[in-house]
Design a protein that fits this description.
Blueprint (H helix, E strand, L loop, with lengths): L10 H27 L25 H18 L1 H14 L3 H32 L3 H18 L11 H9 L12 E3 L5 E3 L1 H27 L3 H22 L9 H17 L8 H21 L25
Antiparallel strand pairs: 1-2
Helix pairs in contact: 1-2, 1-8, 2-7, 2-8, 2-10, 3-7, 3-8, 4-7, 4-8, 5-7, 5-9, 7-9, 9-10
């Protein structure tokens, strides 16, 4: 899963890698606890002379609080990435990307996503530092997004209709098909051109940026610590690619998971909007988010979709001769 060699990822292999990435994230939660509890590399210590809104000196962040914030942020980012899996599946299906080449696209997608998330987190942290009121904007945006997701009808968008694809096809030479696992190929006339595989990579990167618009404000509702914000995103992104191969064909079975994600987004949005009035402990946020996700998954497993009613057979005897029946 970490190498670039093109090969088809089986569900069993993907599940093993998913379990490994989740285990590493849980182990890193323990590392965060000791880092902040012992202030390794100065983690958890407030800036010299920093005070709160009441003029009182800021206290150091306890290790347990930091660990809970990291774990909560990781779960939020990981769960919000579920919708990204649906979109990636649509992109691969639309362009007919063979499964053996999908891993290569997602490998480079990881690198691009880490860079873009880092830039967006730094920019977001700077905005919050300079303009604290922007937290209210983030909160309102998350509540709006959660309600919009809940009320929106399911539909598969056409990747060709997106602005980034139209621009790419206009300014870049795009070959009509694939050339193995290459992103660049050579046309019969000798000119170099990008393959459909490269176009799929561009769209995957673009959709990750779009989803980051939701997930970055969501993590700022959990904590404003740049280290925790970035590391929780890193672990969520690393695990997303293996989770795609494990669940891409199964997510449609969790039909109530979308409602859970809407609840999570709405909750963290309300938390941002009321952060000056209500101090919600990190452990309470973790409990709410885990409960919402567990409820959605549990309901999806317990409540089966209503089967399509079969048309009752006619009770009228069939007297037509065999050769006169219309099939």
């Amino acid at each position: 899963m970490l190498n670039r060699k093109a090969h088809e990822i089986a569900v069993g292999e993907a599940l093993k890698w998913t379990a490994m990435f989740v285990s590493i994230a849980l182990a890193f939660t323990v590392v965060v606890y000791f880092m902040y509890d012992n202030h390794w590399l100065g983690q958890g210590l407030p800036p010299p002379g920093a005070v709160d809104e009441n003029g009182e000196p800021l206290k150091a962040t306890p290790g347990m609080q930091a660990a809970i914030e990291f774990l909560t942020g990781y779960i939020v980012e990981y769960s919000l990435s579920m919708d990204n899996i649906f979109v990636i599946a649509v992109i691969f299906g639309h362009y007919g990307v063979p499964r053996i080449f999908q891993h290569r696209v997602l490998f480079w997608g990881i690198l691009g996503a880490l860079v873009m998330r880092g830039i967006m987190i730094v920019a977001g942290a700077e905005l919050v530092h300079r303009f604290e009121w922007i937290l209210y904007f983030f909160g309102a945006f998350l509540v709006y997004t959660g309600l919009k997701m809940l009320l929106a009808k399911e539909r598969e968008g056409d990747p060709e209709s997106t602005l980034v694809v139209r621009i790419a096809r206009r300014i870049l030479p795009i070959a009509p098909g694939f050339d193995g696992d290459r992103f660049v190929t050579r046309l019969p006339d000798g000119r170099r051109a990008f393959t459909i595989l490269f176009l799929a990579l561009v769209i995957v990167e673009f959709t990750d940026v779009i989803f980051a618009v939701d997930s970055i404000p969501a993590i700022f509702a959990i904590t404003l610590d740049p280290f925790i914000v970035f590391t929780s995103n890193v672990f969520a992104i690393l695990g997303l690619r293996s989770l795609y191969f494990a669940l891409a064909g199964l997510l449609h079975k969790f039909r109530f998971l979308k409602v859970s994600l809407c609840v999570v987004l709405t909750y963290v949005g309300i938390k941002l909007l009321t952060h000056q009035l209500i101090d919600i402990p990190p452990i309470a946020s973790l409990a709410v988010i885990l409960s919402a996700l567990a409820t959605g998954i549990g309901a999806s497993l317990l409540v089966k979709a209503r089967p399509v009613e079969a048309v009752a057979p006619s009770t009228k005897p069939d007297t037509e001769p065999e050769h006169e029946r219309i099939v």
